[in-house]
Design a protein that fits this description.
about 425 residues; alpha/beta; Rossmann fold; seven-stranded mixed beta sheet; two-stranded antiparallel sheet; 11 strands
């Protein structure tokens, strides 16, 4: 088997099987006759006994998006404004002189060509990917008693559905994307990943399912998200963070795919304990390692939660960037395969600590502020069924999860490394890079 780095940046390998991810998405560069297919990134993450160990390193590449700039106030940034162009900076690239010398194409078209050129001309152990991360409108923090329960006898909020505000945010994101695709020729996601929590499945569906996305013989349905266990929100004792069983999720999202190892019941949620931040970063790191080892796409979408996006930004060495609910952020990432053991411990599951905000007294009835719940409206041509409204009654609860004993508290792992600070890097294409030796 070939070494990991030898598969980076190659053109289509006709010997790869038709069912491999390498042949799952054929992406044609605009104004070019050739079809460029990026090979799988490091097909084998585990080195063979005769080879030296390798691991992946991640770095946010700055100078392309306003969200990377430390001088940009995240709380004042409005990505919905057309003038912001999703944060893509109006600038020239060193590839413009051959691709669009008269600047007749959009900024996004020139950016896409620039990224594809980078991936063709960088060393074989390096690749660049653009991640689009969307936050789901979640359940607000509320009573320390009821948030730990499945419901109050009238309403159920375990693995909660989108509230009306969340539905409106997702539809606004859909319109925003459609405008970008139509007017700016923005590069659409080639692969979609989503958290397993119901509100995230609904958000990704409302945002992307009816967009005009490129198709091919191998991708007749370009919006076919994969559900990833590790892409979930930070795991707390709140029951809204406990996912539903796999069989229930399948009834709600029948066209979605499950990763091969996806279990029937939630393996991580425990009552009265929460995942520590360092452990969540380990989980995010394991998620990225898994995706980048198997997905050759250049443009990738994550539908997840604000807490998980913050964790991903830390792992990717991106500046801290506050996102309002329902917002999105693009991140250009440099991925490099390097020799040596990974400084990150192998992810073996969450490390927990006792939930800090727990109370045993039942509050008065008038002070039981259950989170907003509402059925998701029917979306045209959307194959993912949504619960039907019945006299404004929220959707029926999923099957009860098995009763679990409180988890044994694991002491914090002392050797979890802190991700390095963001590294400023502006990339110029200056000919072919030397292969990794």
């Amino acid at each position: 088997m070939e070494d990991q780095e030898s598969l980076l940046g190659r053109h289509e390998n006709k010997h790869l099987g038709a069912n491999t991810i390498a042949s799952a998405y054929m992406y044609k560069l605009r104004r070019r006759k050739a079809t460029v297919v990026l090979s799988p990134l490091f097909t084998t993450m585990m080195s063979s006994p005769a080879s030296k160990p390798r691991h992946l390193e991640y770095k946010t590449v700055v100078g392309y998006f306003k969200q990377d700039d430390q001088n940009v106030d995240a709380k004042l940034f409005d990505y919905f404004k057309a003038a912001e162009n999703f944060g893509l900076i109006d600038r020239e690239y060193d590839t413009d002189k051959d691709f669009d010398p008269e600047r007749k194409l959009t900024q996004w078209q020139r950016f896409e060509h620039h990224i594809h050129t980078l991936n063709r001309q960088t060393p074989l152990n390096v690749q660049y990917k653009l991640l689009y991360s969307e936050t789901t409108y979640g359940t607000p923090a509320w009573n320390c008693y009821w948030s730990l329960k499945d419901g109050n006898g009238t309403t159920t909020w375990a693995d909660s559905h989108l509230a009306p505000t969340g539905i409106a945010q997702a539809l606004l994101a859909h319109d925003f994307w459609q405008n970008l695709l139509t007017t700016q020729k923005t590069s659409p996601p080639q692969t979609f990943y989503t958290s397993p929590l119901t509100r995230c499945l609904q958000t990704s569906t409302l945002t992307f399912s009816n967009l005009t996305l490129p198709t091919s013989p191998s991708t007749p349905m370009p919006f076919t998200p994969t559900i990833k266990e590790l892409l979930r929100e930070g795991i707390s004792a709140h029951t809204c963070d406990r996912r539903s069983p796999k069989t229930y999720i399948r009834t709600q999202a029948p066209t979605f795919l499950f990763e091969p190892s996806f279990p029937e019941t939630d393996p991580y949620w425990r009552p009265l304990v929460s995942e520590i931040p360092d452990s969540q970063d380990q989980r995010s790191r394991a998620l990225l390692d898994d995706i980048f080892a198997h997905d050759n796409s250049t443009f990738i979408s994550f539908s997840t939660h604000s807490g998980e996006i913050n964790s991903l930004l830390r792992v990717l060495r991106h500046r801290s960037f506050w996102l309002p609910t329902g917002a999105m952020i693009p991140v250009l990432v440099k991925i490099e395969s390097v020799e040596g053991e990974s400084p990150w411990p192998k992810y073996e599951g969450p490390v927990y600590r006792p939930e800090e905000n727990v109370c045993e007294d039942v509050p008065p009835p008038l002070e039981t502020p259950a989170p907003e719940t509402a059925p998701v409206p029917e979306v045209p041509n959307n194959e993912v069924p949504a619960p039907a409204p019945v006299d404004d009654t929220p959707p029926p609860p999923p099957p009860a999860a098995p009763v679990m004993e409180p988890a044994e508290i694991v002491p914090p792992v002392e050797n979890i490394p802190t991700p390095p600070p963001p590294v400023a890097e502006d990339v110029n294409v200056e000919g072919n890079g030397a292969p990794f030796v």
